[in-house]
Amino acid sequence: MSRLIDEITARGVRMGLPITVHMDVTYRCNERCDHCYLDHDDHGEMTTAEIKRVLDQLAAAGTFFLVLSGGEVFMRQDFFEILEYARRLQFDVNVKTNAVMIREAEARRLRSLGVRRFQVSIYSDDPAVHDGITRLPGSLQRSLRAMRFLKEQGMYVTLANVLMRQNMHDYAGTQRLAREMGIDFALDPTITPMMDGSTAPLTLRIPTERLQEVYRDASLGPIGSEACGSDDEDVQGNASCSAGHASCYISPYGDVYPCVQFPMPCGNLRHQTFQEIWGDSPQLAELRTIRVRDLPSCSSCGNVGSCSRCPGLAYMEGNMRGPSTADCEKSYARTGHASVNLLAKMNNAATTASPKLVQIQL
Amino acid sequence: MSERYIARSSAIAARLLEGEMVIMSALDSTLFTLNATATAIWQAADGRTPLREIVHNAIHAQFSEVPGSALQDAETFVEALAQHGILLLSDQPITDATALGASQ
Lengths: 362, 104
Description:
heterodimer; A: alpha/beta; B: 3-stranded antiparallel beta sheet; 3 helices
């Protein structure tokens, strides 16, 4: 299945089509998760009519996979109307939600609309840990009940487990919970800065030694941004990922970015059409020219073939052509080999009396 | 031999890419890509036009002659899609509007 989706994405890259679009319909939320990168106030969300107009433009542009997310999508009272419109335009719809507002009746309605897949954020199988992170008492119980309703309706449900310091010892139990429920499990240790640039959430990233244990766990599938990687053998000729090539992100305010994790403004849908932004944005045009061979640090790194460097995280570090230190750390946890970037940081931090570290490529 | 009618299911996602229809079943997540002829049949599946007429029109649009086996091949194709809930298949015209998805 994922191979076919990869093929369609590759076709999108070849044709310059935005095959996958992630749209956050609101940043409002009924949970207040410790690691969240969003400001939950409403600064002027797109209206129902504006969102429908954008969906029309996306369908005309060739978008097939539509991810609707937030914030919490069900905080919008018109969310079912948006969903119904999206399904009428025959998007393959994936909804990311905390699910606490989904009861049996909502699950039935979602099924009748032909929504195919749900991704529900669960942080732990321990209510104290999960509810402690979401700061919503009873949220684990309500989310799990909703996931069972969705499953009973025959929809695909993925349990998305973001890993941070508060829950870093719980993922095995959470994985077991997903297995018992008969649903997919996806683990992601990626904690990003806030959209406003604040790096406060980064203190929640799990320590390297724990990250190494996670990457050594053979029971886990692709972890986090590993799923964004390419199998293409032409490593140096690759783009880092499909962001801006065959996918993009739209905020509740109509801002278009290459990815939810890549806050480089490319245009606004209140002032331009989607096709104008996708086709003419200088920022997207520049992003599309970048290949691994153009990356000053990463192109010469011995980990380049296996690294899942996120250009969005690199952008948030100051340079979309630069390394993403978070991915260097993941790469180190996975392979045991420090990247060129990490070695440079270590050498900079070392005293003049310390020996200089070098990377040896075999 | 009685006429057969086909209608697009609403429980699918679909998009025309490079002249080929890409279809995802919301029921079982099966992904299909249809070639140009199959795409033409899919787009004409309005529940009212007999399959025989759809096949004739779709193939005539691309080839000067309609092979004798064309209808039989098309029936095999639509039965396969019907098994995945992508198409509805009936011996009677299909008038249920909720069954029909848009053609693109």
